[in-house]
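quick q for whoever's on today - can somebody do inverse folding on this one?? i tried earlier but teh output was garbage lol. tokens:
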């Protein structure tokens, strides 16, 4: 599933890692910030139809006076792809974030994600917990859709 709302993906990333947008889009080269920034670009590329150039221009915005070249976006995507293959912790975080983004795409409710799911996913200890949580999300989404259909009737 895709979304056109790259800003909400950035909001999810910032909320998940407890980082301010100003810090995410600062020119700092601190490793912890750079990796989160790269992950943000990776997720935006995966879940939107934005081109590499659009990601570099639109995801940072004029308010931060910080734009990225398309080659930086390519490097970020390749870096995260490599990290996912070899670092279980990064893979686990990516799976968690992808789950959050998928729920957002299906429900459109960013506050729901911020308040409930981020806390649960951050507290998940292993992949089995994430699988259980993912199954719970499916049930929750089905319940939301049923309520929406009932209210339309």
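ok took a stab at it. sequence:
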């Amino acid at each position: 599933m895709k979304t056109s709302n790259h800003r909400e993906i950035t909001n999810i990333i910032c909320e998940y890692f407890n980082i301010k947008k100003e810090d995410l889009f600062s020119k700092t080269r601190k490793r912890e910030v750079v990796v989160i920034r790269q992950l943000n670009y990776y997720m935006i590329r995966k879940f939107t139809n934005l081109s590499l150039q659009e990601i570099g221009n639109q995801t940072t915005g004029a308010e931060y006076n910080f734009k990225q070249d398309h080659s930086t976006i390519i490097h970020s995507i390749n870096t995260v792809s490599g990290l996912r293959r070899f670092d279980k912790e990064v893979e686990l975080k990516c799976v968690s974030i992808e789950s959050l983004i998928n729920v957002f795409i299906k429900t459109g409710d960013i506050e729901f994600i911020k308040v409930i799911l981020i806390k649960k996913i951050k507290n998940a200890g292993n992949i089995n917990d994430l699988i259980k949580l993912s199954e719970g999300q499916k049930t929750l989404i089905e319940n939301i859709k049923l309520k929406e259909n009932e209210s339309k009737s």
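fwiw The radius of gyration is 16 Å. also Helices lie at 6-17, 21-24, 31-47, 52-58, 70-86, 88-107, 110-123, 127-152. so keep that in mind when u check it
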